[in-house]
TrEMBL record:
Residues 15-122, 135-268 form the EamA domain. Signal peptide: none annotated. SUPFAM superfamilies: Multidrug resistance efflux transporter EmrE. This is DMT family transporter. The keyword Membrane applies.
Length: 288
């Protein structure tokens, strides 16, 4: 959780275009993972055409997520950007309803509505500050939608692929998408000072390897719902770091909206946990 909280801080600390930051974050993570592939890399030829298309789509939407979210930090505050990004589980729930026919409970829907009211509160407050801040909020909101699509694709394809192989391929495709974007727009990918290369490396190591990859590893030992609750830690940790490092104070709208989003997500996660426990419980009490 601490590692992930540093992601927006590192993005803000860099002067390089966000598409370059995103490209090297994914490329360096891919290179760090590659030596640990072992036997799993030999199964690449067994992946079918449909799964390759899904992997490409997952990489594209992950690149879109990073591009939108990282760009939002140029326009709005770290607090607003990370709080709105925490809406990802809500969007996944909505998408799962339409794609997988997963029917959420009433408490989960209630949590979603509370979180959305919080998001509207943050957006309306930032409109009062400036159109620039509201535009940044919109980018973060769209970034949360993009990563939700990525998660829905991952849920479908990881039934057939190991998590390591999925992550390795998708990270590589994401880096390639960023490279294509940079080439198309004529954005230079080399010639940056040593400080920028350090930030690129830290983005790969700190929030990705010590954040997201550790969460994937913990899935072997901890319930997914428990890990999902850590999404609440990023806006809190990132906002505190932003106050300390950039003197970005949290506004009343951000505090109120952020609290609503956290309450809504807690309601949603608790409803999801109770539903999972009910499904796992034996039908015959004697079997317990």
């Amino acid at each position: 959780m601490l590692a992930i909280s540093f992601a927006p801080i590192l993005v803000r600390a860099s002067d390089a275009p966000v598409s370059v930051q995103g490209m090297y974050r994914m490329l360096f993570t891919f290179l760090i993972m590659l030596p640990f592939g072992g036997k799993q890399l030999k199964t690449l030829t067994a992946i079918g055409r449909k799964d390759w298309l899904l992997l490409i789509a997952a990489g594209f939407f992950l690149a879109l997520h990073f591009l939108l979210w990282m760009a939002s930090l140029t326009y709005t505050s770290i607090a607003s950007s990370t709080i709105l990004l925490a809406l990802e589980p809500v969007f996944v729930m909505v998408g799962a309803f339409f794609v997988f026919k997963d029917r959420p409970s009433k408490f989960a829907v209630a949590g979603m509505l509370v979180a959305l009211v919080g998001a509207i509160s943050i957006g309306s407050g930032d409109v009062g500050l400036s159109q620039r801040a509201f535009f940044g909020d919109l980018l973060s909101f769209l970034g949360a939608l993009a990563v939700a699509v990525n998660m829905l694709i991952a849920k479908q394809i990881m039934r057939r692929l190991p998590s390591y192989l999925y992550s390795l391929i998708v990270f590589g495709i994401t880096a390639a998408c960023f490279a294509g974007y940079n080439v198309a727009l004529g954005i230079p990918m080399t010639g940056y000072p040593a400080k920028e290369w350090l930030v690129f490396a830290l983005l790969a190591v700190v929030p990705t390897v010590f954040g997201h990859m550790i969460f994937n590893w913990l899935l072997k030992y901890v319930k997914p719902t428990t890990i999902s609750m850590t999404v609440l830690a990023e806006p809190v940790g990132a906002s505190l770091l932003a106050m300390l490092l950039f003197r970005e104070m949290v506004t009343g709208f951000q505090l109120f909206g952020g609290l609503l989003i956290i309450v809504g997500l807690v309601l949603y996660m608790r409803a999801e946990k109770q539903e999972a426990a009910a499904v796992a419980a034996p039908a015959d009490p004697l079997q317990a």
